[in-house]
What does this fold into?
Amino acid sequence: MLWPMFAIALVLLGVAVLAVLAVRVYAEVRRLSAQVAQASRRITDASGDLERAAADLARAGRGVRP
It folds into this structure.
């Protein structure tokens, strides 16, 4: 009777460890997704700035060429 109870206790301990690890992975995925969203917004802003700078440069270059 001792061995089956020991085996059940080990199984429950294993499930508890897996549950803790799953929660940690979930938290890290949420954190990573927030960082990816922030990076995406920064890239979008930089792209807009680059477009405006290129348009200004193109407008300035038209007056220089004969």
